[in-house]
Amino acid sequence: MLENLKHNIEKAWDDTYLLKFKEIQRSVRHVIKLLDKGTIRVAEPDGGEWKVNEWVKKSSNNVFPYSKNGNH
Hints:
This protein is mainly α and 72 residues long. The chain has helices spanning 2-14, 22-37, 54-66; strands spanning 43-46, 49-52. The protein has a single domain (2-66), classed as Tetrahydrodipicolinate-N-succinyltransferase, N-terminal domain (Tetrahydrodipicolinate-N-succinyltransferase, Chain A, domain 1). Helix content is 58%, strand content 11%. The model has no long low-confidence stretch (mean pLDDT 87).
């Protein structure tokens, strides 16, 4: 499931035109819900370092182009 979300987010990041498609919008919204629940994180500890989950960060950045008045 996460791999499919990651794939859709990466595709939309590379080609923002894809944000017009419902499947991509659903993926972005789903990632935002997982962030809200704390299921996934943009960054997480990895040993003594912090690991950034770039695809999650991209998803949160992708929510704004298609949202209206900040609602997603």
